[in-house]
Amino acid sequence: MNYKIIKNALLFVCLTAGHFLLAQIDKKATKETKNLYQNLKTISKNHILFGHQHALEYGHGWSNEENRSDVKSVSGSHPAVVGIDFSDFSGKSEEQIRKAKETLRRNVIDTYERGGITTVSWHFNNPASEGGFYWKDGISAASMSLIKPGGSHHEKYKEILKTIADFAHSVKAKNGTLSPMIFRPFHEFDGDWFWWGKAQTSREDFIAVWQFTVSYLKDSLGVHNFIYAFSPDNRFNSESEYLERYPGDDFVDMLGMDDYGDFGRDGKYDLEAGLKKLKIFSDLAIKKKKLAAFTETGLESIPNENWWTEVLLKTLKSGNLQLAYVLVWRNDTTSPTHYYAPFPGQVSEKDFIKFYDDAFTLFEKDVKNVYSKKFHLN
Fold first, then answer.
1. For this structure, is 188 an active site residue?
2. Every domain of the chain and the residues it spans
3. I need a labelling partner for 55 at 20 to 30 A (CA). Which of 118, 281, 298, 334 fits?
4. 32, 57, 188, 364: which one is catalytic?
5. Known binder of ligand: residue 260?
6. 33-77 confidence digits (pLDDT tens)
7. Which of 94, 95, 102, 296 is catalytic?
8. Where is the signal peptide, in residue numbers (predicted)?
9. CB-CB contact of 74 with 363 (8 Å)
């Protein structure tokens, strides 16, 4: 039985924004962004949206094909949440930046007009040294202290943020409205693999840069179509550890986590630990009147043919979690092994369809008017 067909028969209480009193940090957020914020909370009470990074830009063996995604090829629907990245907005030539912006602009607008949701990660190329976004010994500079207010590269950082703001102002749909985006900067900051990571950055500098970034975008550059997401990796085991670098309730809309390690990476599973961590920040978000999401996960190559239902779905349905979405990582165009969502013929394809058919999971086809107070499930 395809449970999507009978989804409207399920109990789904669509509460109004006033019942939630969610603490959205941008009081001048666009109407569509405010509605999305409240509707994501509604969704998280009984369902979860499925997301895939770079879903529409490319997939396993293809790239730049209109209205295509590997998820759609398998399930018939695009993911509800589509991940993009601002990685090419700095440290590149002006022409490369222009082309990257144009590609992503079309992606974001198309997703918005279809009724999908865009989330943005930022693999930020080091603004004060070579080495890209990874930390490379002997090459990379510990740059968070340099880009904070008063730092040697602060003015350069402001110019980079202006590039992001210009993009945010440009994603206008045919009806003139701006496409909302979930912006997730400095992710996995508790690890040591990025130049903004914990080993390279003091707690005070991390918080100073985060607070400046949010304030400058919304208050100085007039960006009002962002929802701001905070997402460490999985290196915490308590609420206090999760909050160690938290910049404060006035600077965060969504609490998240990136966790591959507990969900099968290198053949290692610790679903109990993974659920415990999800529960920590889901409960914290409820307490703080914020959103929560499983911002990154997945199993590279998906060799476990029942991973979707026996690992991911089973965990997501446990512990009374309230998560707006779960996002798996990208499907590389040329690599035979670097992919995190199935494609036709992949060993987990049948299980993914079970995952898709489950009433708990929502894809793009399942949501209607997510940017409106008329939001409902199809």
1. yes
2. 7-377
3. 281
4. 188
5. yes
6. 999 999 999 999 999 999 999 999 999 999 999 999 999 999 999
7. 296
8. 1-23
9. no
The rounded distance, in Å, linking the Cα atoms of 19 and 23 is: 12
Token pair of 139 as six digits = 């090459």
CATH of region 7-377: 3.20.20.80
Look over the chain and give the mean of its residue pLDDT values, rounded to a whole number: 95
d(CA 22, CA 36): 12
List the one residue out of 254, 325, 295, 286 whose CA is nearest residue 25: 254
19 is in an annotated binding site: no
Q: What are phi and psi of 38, to 5 degrees?
A: -70, -40
Q: Which of left, alpha, beta for 54 (phi over 0: left; psi -120 to 50: alpha)? A: left
Strands 325-328 and 361-362: unpaired
Once rounded to an integer, what is the mean pLDDT over residues 149-159?
Answer: 98
Q: How do residues 199-249 score in pLDDT, each as one tens digit?
A: 999 999 999 999 999 999 999 999 999 999 999 999 999 999 999 999 999
* Half-sphere exposure for 300 (CA within 13 Å, toward CB): 12
